[in-house]
Structure formats: C-alpha cells, structure tokens
Design a protein that fits this description.
16 helices, Dipeptide-binding Protein, domain 1, D-Maltodextrin-Binding Protein, domain 2, Dipeptide-binding Protein, domain 3, alpha+beta, twelve-stranded mixed β-sheet, four-stranded antiparallel β-sheet, globular
Length: 532
C-alpha cells in the first residue's frame, strides 16, 4: 500500500509540474498566440461563419466591405466609402489596392461573386436570409458596386459588415468546389492571417499573411493557434497556467474566477444576445401553447438568476432582448417592457394548466444542451422544476458544433418526419444588427432556419416583413409591438437570461477588446506583448 501511495504521489507531482510549466512564450514560440475555443469550428467559409467559434477564426482570414468599430458603428474596410442613395439603392466604392494572401489582386468579380454566394441555394449559406430583399448586385463602375433592393430593408445597411459581406477569392473557391473551406483545402482571403492547418476537434493554425495589403494593420504574431478545449474548467485552468494565452467567449459560470485572477485581463460587455429554451412547436405536446405556458410557470427563474447566472448575464423578461437593443425610440420600448408579463413561479398553477392542456400525469421529453457549464447547470434546475409537475425532461448533451447544426436545422439533424430532431433545446442568439428587430426577426420568422422553435405564425410573419420595409421609426415600432404582443402570448421561447460577453487574455498581452458586435469584429492582429 505504501509503494502504491508513493507511486500515486509521484504521478500527481509530475502532472502538477507539467501543468505549472504551461506553455509560456519561449524564444522559439514567442511569436505564437494561442486562443482557446469551447468547440470546433463549422467550416472555414464566411457563408457558414455564424457562431461563437467559427467567426473568431474566419474573421482573421477574410474581411468585409465594412466593419463595426468598438462603438458598434459602421466603418469602411474593403470598401473605401459607401452611400445610401435612396430606400432601394446602396453604392459602395471598392478599394483598388487590395490583394489576397496568395498575392492575387482583389477584383470586382471577386466582390460580386462573394456576395452572390449567399444567394446560391447550393452553398446553403447560414446568412442567405440577409439577402432576401436584394434584387441585384452589380458593378456600376470600375470600382463601384451597387446593390439594389426589391423592397426597403431597414437592416441592409449592416449586412456588409457581417461575414455576409466578406470577400473570398473567386478562382480559388470555384476550383475547390465542395472542398472549399474544409480541413484539406481551407480558405483564401484578404485578411492579416492565412489558413495553415485544421485538425478536426483539436486545433486550427493560422500563419501571418506576409502579403497583407494593409501594412499599417499587420499582425504581430507569426502564428495564431485556436485550440478546441470543450471543458470550461480545463480551458480556464489552461489560461491560468499559460497553456492558452486567451479564451473566448469566457465561460459564464467562471467569470468570477477570471475577474479575481491578477494574471488575467477579463474584458466584458453587455451583449445583443439572449440564452433561451426553445420548444419544438411542430411536435406534440409542444405545439400546445398551454403546455409551453405551464412549463414557464414551473421554472424558478429567480433562483436560476441569483444562484447560477449571477454576473454572467442580466435577468430575463418576456422580451427576446435586453435593453441594449432599445436603439430606436428607447423610451417606448422601456414602457412596453414595464407592461409586459412577468415570470410567475407557480407550481400548482402549472400543474393545473398542464392538466387543462390534456396532460394531467405529465409526459417525458428531451432537453438538448451543449457543453457550456452554465447551461448544463440551468438544465439540471429545469429538469428538477419540471419533475415537480410530472414532466421528465431527459438532458441530451451534445458537442458544440453538433449543437449548432441542430439549432440551425441542418438536414442531417432532422428526424424521419423532416422535423427538427429535438423536443426542447437550450441555445443562444446574438442579434446580428444593433436594432430592436435583431432577435425578433431570425427567431420568430416562419421558415427561417435560425427559428429554433420552428414557430410559424402568419400574422407575425407579415408584421416582421412590414416593419423591415418601414423607414418611419414610430410606425416601425408600432408593427414590432404588435408582433411582440402575439409572440409573448404564444411563447415559443422562454428567455433564461441576457448574457454578458467576455474575452480573457494573459496580462502579458494587450490589444484586444470586446463589445456587443464582437462576433463580427473580433480581430487579433492588434494583440501584442505589453512590453512591445
């Protein structure tokens, strides 16, 4: 027994030594920056860059016509300037001095091809819906691009600053075909870093773009390595020991640990997002609004907020966004929020409502969740809360990239009836634009792949369509409030909290920031050692 104990102690000592040494920069790797992600990327393709892990990688390789700055305002990038001529016409002056990482000059053909890809059904772009109002995309000068809309679209102005506005090399993409963006072929863009390798489930390696067109904004590091570390505790520990130099987004359940560590800089920002529980409204019994209301009554939202969420997010309401998206007539939205229904924790009332809906004994269902620690903790509370009214909610845990495919309704995740392959799913959404409709439109519009509840209400669809074409802010908000009245009553989603987003970096480095539009504008070329 003593020999066994000695052996175990020796093994533990060796493991501790290895962790303690970490991967602090040495003379050999001081020009390498290692970033920890919580899941693998989907693909190296701007058309599929629409999540919290794929975007931080793709954003280093490709660039958009415009970009959001730290104040969420539009700024020029591959377009030197732009103008909204009228409600239907947007004109962009494209830079004539941009080259791709292989040295090939960027042309107008590349720009038009890149935008049109999102409208190609064969590409199956996650951002294709952003082009629903587009009529034509064409060159109207040697370096002038004109986008003509078929109807006014209040949010089109923002699209060129998302990955929907990123430019890829046409010749490379066409030659790659179906392999474009995979681990073997990668991606060619105009950004400060270039694709080097991708080991699925492990890491993505980018190298400095030595041919980068914007020499004043070139990256400091020779390599960026994105490590896939799904476990929150392991990821935070790796940052503390130096195995990782940066992690994003920071795990909500460990924000207090990151805040208190003197070796780490933890930058947070209120976001445009929401963490929600979506009901599959096309499946029984979740096609019954009374069942959905009963579940809402059975969940102790206050305990979830005070006991689990804490500083990781703001308390939820009946609205699909926090006050951060009250960007148009904010006082009217504040009044609407004050008058909206409040969470009402009432177990006996939930039981009675469930019985009225035809389920006096409850039922069994699945609740899908990814590897996020806080979401798993919340799922356990929901499981216990629902058990009190007779509902057995089995927690189904899947990887982050698999969860994204389920959330977006990818074909391979559908069941034998062509319906989404879950009963309930806990997921998140970040508004693409700083606009009150930023969450309402993608989450509630029927037929939208990001509509995780698969909710489809003709009146809501019409109101969403009308508000998007309205230039008068007061009339537009009238339409949004009408839509809100309906969806609050239908309750296809339960909003759990409004996340605060963060990025954590070793204090040896500086030059990275976090804001509400971070998914589009996280860039690492500005990161460098503090001493530099």
């Amino acid at each position: 027994m003593k020999r066994l104990l000695s052996l175990l102690l020796a093994v533990l000592f060796l493991a501790s030594a290895l962790v303690g040494c970490g991967n602090k920069p040495s003379a050999a790797d001081e020009k390498t920056f290692v970033i920890g992600l919580d899941s693998d990327i989907i693909r190296l393709d701007p058309a599929l860059a629409y999540d919290f892990t794929t975007n931080p990688v793709v954003n280093q390789i490709t660039q958009g016509l415009l970009v959001f700055d730290e104040e969420n305002q539009l700024q020029p990038l591959l377009a030197s300037s732009w103008e909204q001529v009228d409600d239907l016409t947007y004109v962009y002056q494209i830079r004539d001095d941009v080259t791709f990482s292989d040295g090939t000059p960027m042309t107008m053909d590349d720009v038009i091809y890149s935008l049109e890809r999102h409208r190609d059904e064969n590409v199956n772009s996650y951002l294709g819906w952003m082009f629903d109002s587009v009529k034509t995309i064409e060159a109207t000068g040697d370096w002038e691009l004109t986008v003509t809309l078929s109807k006014p679209d209040a949010n089109w102005q923002y699209v060129p600053a998302t990955t929907a506005g990123h430019v890829v090399e046409k010749a490379f993409a066409e030659e790659a075909g179906d392999k474009f963006g995979d681990a073997e072929t990668g991606l060619v863009g105009t950004g400060p870093y270039v694709f080097e390798s991708w080991k699925s489930g492990s890491e993505v390696v980018l190298a400095k773009n030595e041919a980068y067109w914007n020499t004043e904004d070139a990256g400091y590091f020779e390599k960026l390595i994105f490590k896939v570390v799904p476990d929150d505790t392991t990821r935070v520990t790796a940052l503390k020991t130096g195995d990782l130099d940066c992690i994003l987004p920071t795990p909500a359940a460990q924000m207090d640990i990151l805040d208190s560590d003197e070796t780490i800089t933890h930058v947070t920002s209120p976001g445009f997002g929401v963490t929600f529980l979506a009901f599959n409204t096309q499946k029984e019994p979740f096609n019954n609004a009374a069942v959905r209301h009963a579940i809402e009554m059975a969940i102790d939202f206050d305990s979830i907020q005070t006991g689990l969420v804490k500083q990781a997010g703001d308390a939820s309401t009946a609205l699909p966004s926090s006050t951060a998206l009250f960007t148009i007539e904010p006082e009217r939205w504040t009044t609407y929020l004050e008058n909206a229904p409040k969470h009402n924790f009432d177990v006996e009332g939930a039981k009675a409502l469930l019985a009225e809906a035809g389920y006096p004994e409850g039922f069994t269902c699945d609740l899908m969740v990814n590897e996020d620690g806080l979401r798993n903790d919340i799922a356990l509370v929901i499981n216990q809360n629902l058990a009190a009214i007779g509902i057995t909610a089995n927690i189904v845990k899947v990887s982050g990239d698999e969860h994204t495919r389920y959330q977006f309704g990818d074909a391979e995740t559908l069941d034998e009836n062509g319906l989404r392959g879950y009963d309930m799913i806990m997921a998140g959404w970040e508004a693409d634009f700083p606009d009150p409709a930023g969450n309402l439109q993608p989450l509630y519009q029927g037929g939208n792949s990001y509509n995780s509840a698969d909710y489809n209400n003709a009146a809501v669809n019409e109101l969403i369509a009308q508000q998007a074409t309205e230039s008068d802010p007061t009339v537009r908000n009238d339409l949004l409030f009408q839509a809100m009245d309906i969806v609050v009553e239908d309750m296809p989603y339960l909003f759990l909290f409004y996340p605060v987003k963060g990025i954590a970096i070793n204090k040896e480095y500086t030059g990275v920031s976090m804001n509400a539009s971070w998914i589009w504008n996280i860039h690492f070329q500005g990161v460098h050692p503090v001493a530099e």
